[in-house]
Amino acid sequence: MQLKPLDQQVVAVEGASRGIGRETVFQFAARAAKRVVSARSESGLQSLVDEIEQMGGEAIAVPADLTVFEQVKAIADQAEI
Q1: Which residues, including other chains, have CB under 8 Å from residue 45's CB and lie 6 or more apart?
Q2: To the nearest 10°, the Cα dihedral for 49, 46, 40, 72?
Q3: CATH of the domain at 39
Q4: Structural domain tally of the chain?
Q5: What pLDDT score does 58 carry?
Q6: 1, part of any domain
Q7: How confident is the model at residue 81 (pLDDT cuts 50, 70, 90)?
Q8: Is residue 16 part of a domain?
């Protein structure tokens, strides 16, 4: 299977507002992938998106709890755009 380069992909990262999830988002940002970031903490997500945009990147924040199917689906829906 041949994968597209990261700068042509969208990645979705759950738990993105802090810790290893946040670091993962920055690693993808360094490789120019578009990001859909998700966590339960809406304020943490907004500060992350602000930081990414200040770096010249782009990200979409989707507050979500992984135990709620509709919220998980919202993450997937945003990643498909």
Answers
A1: 16, 17, 37, 38, 39, 61, 62, 63
A2: -50
A3: 3.40.50.720
A4: 1
A5: 86
A6: no
A7: low
A8: yes
**Cβ atoms of residues 10 and 36 within 8 Å:** yes
Does 2 fall in a domain?
no
In a domain, 3, yes or no: no
Residue 54 three-state SS: helix
What confidence tens digit (pLDDT) does each residue in 26-78 have?
998 888 888 899 999 888 999 999 999 898 888 999 999 999 999 999 999 99
The number of beta carbons lying within 10 Å of the beta carbon of residue 70 is: 8
Rounded Cα–Cα distance for residues 10 and 75 (Å): 11
Domain extent, residue 54, equals: 9-80
pTM of the complete model: 0.84
